[in-house]
Amino acid sequence: MYTKEIEITLLQLAKDLLRKLQQKESIQDLDGTLEGLRRVIIYNDWRYYVQSDPVLSDYEYDQLFAWLKELETANPDKISADSPTQRVAQGNGKNFPTVQHLVPMLSLENSYNAEDLNDWDRKNREQSKLEEIEYCIEPKFDGASISLIFENDILSRGATRGDGVSGEEITRNIYQISSVPKKADFSKYGIQSIEIRGEVLINKDTFKKQNEQRVAENLQPLANPRNAASGSLRMVDPREVAKRGLDAFLYHMSYHVMEPGKTEPKEITTHSNTLQLFADLGFRSPAKEMKVVKGIQAVIDYVLEFEKERDNLPYEIDGMVIKVNDYELQDRLGMTTHHPRWAMAYKFKARQATSKLRKVEFQVGRTGSVTPVAKIDPVPIGGVTVGSISLFNEDVVREKDLKIGDTVLVERAGDVIPYIVKSLADMRDGSEEDIKFPTHCPVCNDPLFKPEGESVWRCVNLNCEAQVVERMIHFVSKDAMDIRSLGESNVKKFYALGLMKDIPGIYKIDFAKLEQLEGFGKKSLTNLQSAIEQSKTQPLHRLIFGLGVRYVGETTAKTLANACNHLLDFKGWTEEQLLALEDIGPKVAGSISQFFQLHDNIQMLEELESLGLNLKSNKADHSSGGSLNGLNFLFTGTLNKLKRSDAEEMVEQQGGKILSGVSSKLNFLIVGDDAGSKLEKAKKINTIRILSEDEFLQLIASQTPVSES
Ligand SMILES: NC(=O)c1ccc[n+]([C@@H]2O[C@H](COP(=O)([O-])OP(=O)(O)OC[C@H]3O[C@@H](n4cnc5c(N)ncnc54)[C@H](O)[C@@H]3O)[C@@H](O)[C@H]2O)c1
Ligand SMILES: [Zn+2]
């Protein structure tokens, strides 16, 4: 579609336009500017919607789009029908057949503050001649939109938004989303066929896990769950799609046909009723999150209140959508070719900022990887101050063309670690300097190596102080052995003083010597001692994770802990045996097998055991009684007594597994308050046992073996 040369020209053009906008340059050539803006926006739409790999930040894109709109409003005679302001962006790729939407799938108009919302409400009231309007407010899910057609209760077609008029037919990929029912009882309401719309997304924790894996390999993480979701949805191989853990919220009915002789039920007279209907039929819809209010002030209050909850939600949202609740009124208000007039997006504050790159430091990690870390002038983004940002590896620095002294665009989306989107090269004044990569380890001065095909430089000296210290810090960290009183600074301090020289050293600290140190009271020493003592009984998977074997994250650590009776069993395992375990590929298997072949590592493990640490699998501990081995669990709704993560850990400690959705593989569904579609779905599968929180606690407490019922 675009050649490399054209792409480069268009990027250059985008940057020129942004510079002109920033410097408020007066426009010499209006036609040229309009034409440039349109070409740039159309190109970036393609990068964003078709490639799922934007090159501009949303913030920059939005600035260009707003500029085009402003120029067109001032010069209405210059509006062309193919302008991006007049239609939905082209979003069809080549991998799927194109299908027509029954009703156009539009974009939304954006608002950013109370004033915008008041304006919109005023227009609505003027047009409808009503004094007060009923609105339904719901989250604006940050994913990729889909359209689903159900005929005679059966999901017959799934499609992407595409260019709004036609989209890509991705039915087989939709089948991979476990929260989308393939059959739903619309006929119970007299509905023969229906088109419904929603958003496919990736939950934050799934996204985080996928990114952790990337970071563990020193790859730059994916920018946000949205790009991940839209990319995953449009993969050619449905089996790959199934692995991405996609989820979907359905939030709109666009079209329906009643069965002959049937009249419309009240469920489809207002938007909020429809959302409830979706939930009742087993879809995930924002029925719980939505709020129906009268008048715009209540809308403003709710969006501001909801924004505070943004980070507590399991999925990403980038704002709220406000819809006129009554369908008849929606019809009267109508739509433009770009968006419906009866809906409005309220966008939350951008989580981006610009800052200056002051210097780059090189940190040596526990596996010897040398990571460049950017030090920027601290800026507040989304409630935290960001001053230090990992640049992952040399390739990232090269690709982003970073220089010391550059102005950089920084993003921090939700829980995602902050990252540098790009340098604003146009703002250079010639004083910027290249970033120089060290040839020797900044800590032990050994020469650095970079294996063929990798982008990470490494110090391969196993006794490199930086690595030894980082391994200990990782070992005591929260998700590993969780020795809280022995944080990063104490590890560094004790190591420097020669009180602790390696991981077994943690369990051999001479407390008499510690007592003579300044700054350690009796109480804090007792606490430290008992925290160290307690860590000895941590479950095996935490110890395995704590060892910091390359590529072994928390999930793999659990797999390994469940696969052995004793950690040293792995001494005798071949790579083939490891490969047979779930989710362990050749790279991971190679790394594990290498770890257990090193004499020093075996000696360390033996020493840890003799110091009293638990190297036995909890699976083995529970083999007689109370074991949940082979049983699958899922939690839904809000638990009152337990934190969800603690409850899940209780299951896993007894050998049970947590599934991500309801299927016939599920044995127990534990139901908290406000349980939704999962419960409905589980009720239809009679092999699933449904338990309350109390019943679950009894099950965990009971010592008798549980069998599959
Ligand atoms: N960085 C780039 O190069 C680039 C390029 C193109 C677009 N963008 C970004 O995308 C935005 C425009 O994208 P868009 O046209 O998809 O609009 P949008 O994302 O601003 O809003 C419209 C979309 O919101 C979604 N949505 C989520 N929850 C919804 C709900 N409850 N009800 C109704 N709709 C809901 C729907 O998918 C709908 O299509 C721009 O503002 C920009 O930030 C960025
Ligand atoms: Zn070193």
From TrEMBL:
GO terms for molecular function: DNA ligase (NAD+) activity; metal ion binding. SMART domains: BRCT, LIGANc. InterPro entries: BRCT_dom, BRCT_dom_sf, DisA/LigA_HHH, DNA_ligase, DNAligase_adenylation, DNAligase_N, NA-bd_OB-fold, NAD_DNA_ligase_OB. It holds the Pfam family HHH_2. Keywords: DNA damage, DNA repair, DNA replication, Ligase, Magnesium, Manganese, Metal-binding, NAD, Zinc. GO terms for biological process: DNA repair; DNA replication. The active site is at 140 (n6-amp-lysine intermediate). Signal peptide: none annotated. It catalyses: NAD(+) + (deoxyribonucleotide)n-3'-hydroxyl + 5'-phospho-(deoxyribonucleotide)m = (deoxyribonucleotide)n+m + AMP + beta-nicotinamide D-nucleotide. The keyword DNA damage applies. Its cofactor is Mg(2+); Mn(2+). Residues 623-709 form the BRCT domain. Zn(2+) binds at residues 441, 444, 464. DNA ligase that catalyzes the formation of phosphodiester linkages between 5'-phosphoryl and 3'-hydroxyl groups in double-stranded DNA using NAD as a coenzyme and as the energy source for the reaction. It is essential for DNA replication and repair of damaged DNA. Belongs to the NAD-dependent DNA ligase family. LigA subfamily. This is DNA ligase. The lineage of its organism: Bacteria, Pseudomonadati, Bacteroidota, Chitinophagia, Chitinophagales. The gene is ligA.
